[in-house]
Write a structure and sequence with these properties.
This protein is 32% helix and 20% strand. With 69 residues, the chain is an alpha+beta fold.
Length: 69
Amino acid sequence: MYKYEVIVYWSEEDEAYIAEVPELPGCMADGATYEKALKNIQVTISEWIETARTLGREIPIPKGKLIYA
């Protein structure tokens, strides 16, 4: 399991839970339940990292909890 912060919220527009990883640009997943969104984001994080490696891009080190104003 990855150590990146994940933000999960309900989207009325999509009628699904959305999971986002702020440290990995564009890394998002959805799910019919909160738990499914969390499960799906783990797969998406893995794919994001694999793609970044293939393209020779830097992979951010997880910072843990981010601070927002």
